[in-house]
Amino acid sequence: MTENANSNMPHQFKGVMDFAKPYLRNVNTVVFPTIMCVILLSVFSDKFLTVENQLNILRSAAVAMIVGVGQVFVISARQIDLSVGSVMGLTACLTGFLVFDGYPLILCFAFAVAVGAALGLCNGLIVGFLKVPALLGTLGMLVLARGVVQEVMYGTYHVRFPANFVILGQGNTLGVPNLVWVAAVVVIVGHFVLTRLEYGRYILAIGGNPEAARIGGIKVRKYIIIAFVVQAALVALAAFLLMGRMNSAHPTLGQGLELHIIAGVILGGTSLFGGIGRVWGMAIAMYLIAVLENGLLLAGAGFFWQQILLGLLLILSVAIQVYRTRGNQAGK
Amino acid sequence: MTPTTPILELKEIAKHFGAIKAVDGVSFSVTPGECVGLVGDNGAGKSTIVKVISGYHPQTSGKLLIRGKEATFSSPLDSRKHKIETVYQNLALVEQLGVSANFFLGRELHTGWGRAIRYLDRNAMRVQAAEELQRIGISIQNADATVSDLSGGQRQSIAIARSIFWGSECLILDEPTAALGVNETNAVAELIQRVVNSGVSVLIVSHDIDLITKLCSRIVVLRQGKLWSKLKTSDVTAADIVHHITGTARAA
User: Fold this and answer.
1) CATH for A31-321?
2) Is the pLDDT confidence value at B12 over 70?
3) Cβ–Cβ contacts within 10 Å for residue A327, how many?
4) pLDDT tens, A100-153?
5) Which of A49, A80, B127, B166 has the maximum number of C-beta atoms within 10 A of its C-beta?
6) Domains and CATH numbers, chain B
């Protein structure tokens, strides 16, 4: 099929495709563009490669990286979670009440993770037991959770949290933002779990061939539910840190986050069709997205350009993946 | 269990899906070290029988005896516990994972520090998978190769080798040579012969009459969910078997 398509291509384009094929199929497609962007932006702007700017980029990418780790597991298992943005908003706003009531931070954190995990469990049960396709089940949760948080907050929002809470999101440790430290730990642990632990292997097996996993004695439903719970718990962790960073919690917090996360995960090499997960690739992709956003900012482009960029990246990443999948099938 | 006690015996097995009788009162047995063929046209009930034996579908009625003792399977794991392994037509391999990962799928080896910190022992799994493949004469250059990069014959061989590796005493092969070329079919047939020679009982479900007559000593023919005939391979020709399957011969 691919060969037929190639045979109809103009000569020059066919040459480019032949050159690009091995790269597209075998190399994590996000590494090269990231390096190119860093080089180009450092040429065009002397501010870009400064430590301060790089830490800013990492700080803005950190939340997406934390949430992205969970989404790598979910998508690797041939599922998807569209509700991450709404779960973030709801978790943050509910936790905000506890923070203002003066509860110990550890208790607030436990509450946030518990709320997130409970919402993730709902997603998991909807998909695992009610057999609702994840795309629609989590879309329902996206609307539902956003509705709940709007109702609870009723037009208000939390702002100016206590200083000991704010420091979690805004502070630095050894000169590096706390958010970045947490994201680094989550990415490393996520990579280890996916590649070295039984759970990660089962997730990949379920995504690759659920029937084979079932025959192999793997409890498919259980692992899918766990993936949704872990995803939402990581969203809660990110929400907790983001509240501190922004020193506020709005009912609109996290709106549109799902597209950002899915774009980064797919761009990072995780297969939209399941069975292949790339935690490092996702982390680099989130950095790339943040770099591009930063570049637009340095170039004086407005916020809407960031949305345009994100949309283009999402389409591009899925197109590359479809191309790679068709190429692999044609190669059999 | 005496040497003549069947390793697997079906007594009046029936499986109904609502009003549909997919399998109706089928009885046959497989003795240790024997290779038996299960044949029939599409819709004859072959796949349903395989799913009953492998614990995928519990039978509606009838008895399943393993080494002379009645057994009840509620999941594929129960079947495995009785050392019955099934290699399905779709092979039950995960294409995106490597050979060794598929070999140990669901039964991974671990290493680590004590019970608390345990992670996959990928090296041990790689070495053991490569050794086992070599032992039964399967040539795979790299046990880390992704299954999607292998040929159909190699995939089939890996699926069979995996079952043997896990101590199977009775192997159920569902269409083992479907979609394979001539050379790959011959290679898989040789592998199955080696497996039978090693003392493992094999039940082959196939439309490939040549393969069945080449490997099996007895043939069980199903038609429309019912047992139609039991044949000795030495007593019949390929044409006779086709007659039994398609419906002109009388039941034995």
Assistant:
1) 1.10.3470
2) yes
3) 17
4) 999 999 999 999 999 999 999 999 999 999 999 999 999 999 999 999 999 999
5) A80
6) 8-89+149-246 (3.40.50.300)
